[in-house]
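User: Show me a protein chain along with its predicted structure.
Assistant: Here is one chain, sequence first, then structure tokens.
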Amino acid sequence: MSAQPVIVVAGHICLDIIPAFRESDAGLDRLLVPGKLVDVGAAVLSTGGAVPNTGLTLHRLGGTVRLLGKIGNDHLGNIVRALLEQAGPGLGSRLVVGCEPTSYTIVISPPGTDRVFLHCPGANDAFGPDDVSEGNLRDAALLHFGYPPLMRRMYEQGGAELLTLLRRVKAGGATTSLDMARPDPDSPAGRVDWPALIERVLPHVDVFLPSFEELLFMLDRPRFERIEARYGTRITAGAEPGLLDELAGRLLALGAAVVAIKLGERGLYLATTPERRRVEAMGRARLGSDWIARQLMTPCYQAAVLGTTGSGDCTIAGFLMGLLGRLSPEQAINAAVAVGACSVEQADATSGVPSWRQVMARQANGWSRLDDTSPAPDWVRLDSGAWRGPRDGWVCP
């Protein structure tokens, strides 16, 4: 890849405290029992949230990044800054220090099961557009913003401050990218009118990168709750035929140019606008014509899983590196799931991610897929290992 453009990664940041579990501890129903003492190993302390997870992964891949988040003037904030500086000199220098406590998360992630988070939002709730200075945006090709549902100022008043930030970034010529997070249903964020907020901000979002579960929760909560009641707490894109295509089409109609939906262990789904003019309005990271009117899906690569914390954020980093590196859509989604697979091979989010060159080499050396079955009967497998959907290539003038 040629010289990397500047990527600003802004939004949610916290300190992750990750206890080590034994293989025999798998099963949260046996661990989270009132009054029970669980013998665990040493805790891993790492930065968490979209800013360090996606930002440090981009840095490890060879990208040029600026990390913008808010911490408190406290011991946890000092640890967060030190961990960023340890990852790369200057990576912690742009953090804003506020009056609120530093955010932290206790990550309960036993082997073989999905994780549970005990989270304190802290200073993230006070992060606003004023914390993203013009100096940090200058010459940036792309701003990626992560986790507004966990940041009070970003979701209050119908997302007015998130909209202010996105408009300012677009007016400056940079491309915008947005990731979400599923809020606690019983929290103030869980009571937000998310369909209205998404409709309001999406015309100013070039690349939208939610997970399927959080997307369904936000866009169609009654359907989410029906599927959850039917299948349990783990909701997958295969719960209802056609649902994934329906949600992606809705997002494109609301104004996004590129929609990449994370599917957990099923891989990554990509849908892009059929409107050439929308692609041309993407800003400095404008894509080629091969990105117009695409419908693709790619399965995950096999990995020796030690922890899934931050794997979605790392997948996003791989996708953004491919997008900014002018890869084809097929190459970009394959790179995304490759980086995500590398990330789960360590307990924390980012230390398992090697250089971009090493990721590409691992792909080229016959890396096996986790599940290579067709997403639906009318999808066609490509030589790249990705699948092409029936609406791939429907271009508007």
